[in-house]
Amino acid sequence: STFFFSNCTTVCPVLVSALREVQVHAVTEGYADDVSFLPVTFDPERDTPAALADYAARMNVATDAGNWRFLRPESVDRARETVTDAFGVTFEKTPADGDGWMYAHTGLVLLVNGDGFVERAYRPERPSRASIRFDERQVIDDLRRVRRA
Fold first, then answer.
1. Is 138 helix (H, G, I), strand (E, B) or coil?
2. How far apart are CA 128 and CA 130, in angstroms?
3. Local structure of residue 44 (DSSP, 8 states)
4. Kind of pairing, strands 40-41 and 91-95?
5. Would you tell me which of 25, 68, 107, 126 could form a disulfide with 11, CB atoms 3.0–4.6 Å apart?
6. Continuous segment of H or E residues that includes residue 126
7. DSSP assignment, residue 8?
8. Alpha-carbon distances of 37 from 40, 97, 104, 129, rounded to whole Å
9. What pLDDT digit, counting tens, does each position of 68-81 carry?
10. How many CB atoms are closer than 10 A to CB 50?
């Protein structure tokens, strides 16, 4: 799972793309039915079901594989309860150009086992101000160990 908003242009696309690569690995290696991908938006005002469907298409996410579901809290208050209070992922609305807004937020991916316990937490690497990387191979390797346990 990860926490994102679809208007993000920095870390969110990196995190979602990394999860997509893990999903592709799950499909090609035959364990897609054993894993779920549940990215949670903290911007339910703009991330409507239609916006999330568009985002999935833009990010080339296989929502039809049956193991990927974007989760959308019903309100910003509920998003704060879910994302910040339950998982400790902070986000803060900040003004953007025009009438819009963006979010300053924590970048995080969680690997959760079948019993609902967080096994691993991953943060993206930022080798420079201009680049953000995420090691999906580490997630795949850890996922293999968790599936075997």
1. helix
2. 5
3. T
4. unpaired
5. 107
6. strand 125-128
7. -
8. 10, 32, 23, 28
9. 999 999 999 999 99
10. 8
Amino acid at 33: D
Residues in the chain, overall count: 149
Task: Report the share of the chain in percent with pLDDT over 70.
Answer: 97
Q: CB neighbours (10 Å) of residue 105? A: 23
Retrieve residue 94's tokens: 């900040």
The residues with which 128 forms a beta bridge, in sequence order, are 131
Contact 2, 116 (CB under 8 A): no
Compute φ and ψ for 135, nearest 5 degrees.
-95, 90
Q: Which amino acid is at 136?
A: E
> Token pair for residue 104?
């300053």
Lowest-confidence pick of 16-20, 55-59, 92-96, 98-102: 98-102
CA distance 122 to 99: 33
Could you give the C-alpha distances from 43 to 66, 96, 123, 124, 139, in angstroms and in order? Answer: 23, 14, 20, 21, 26
The tokens for 18 are 């990394």
Residue 11 half-sphere exposure toward CB, CA atoms < 13 A? 21
* Spatial contact of 123 and 110, defined as CB atoms under 8 Å apart: no
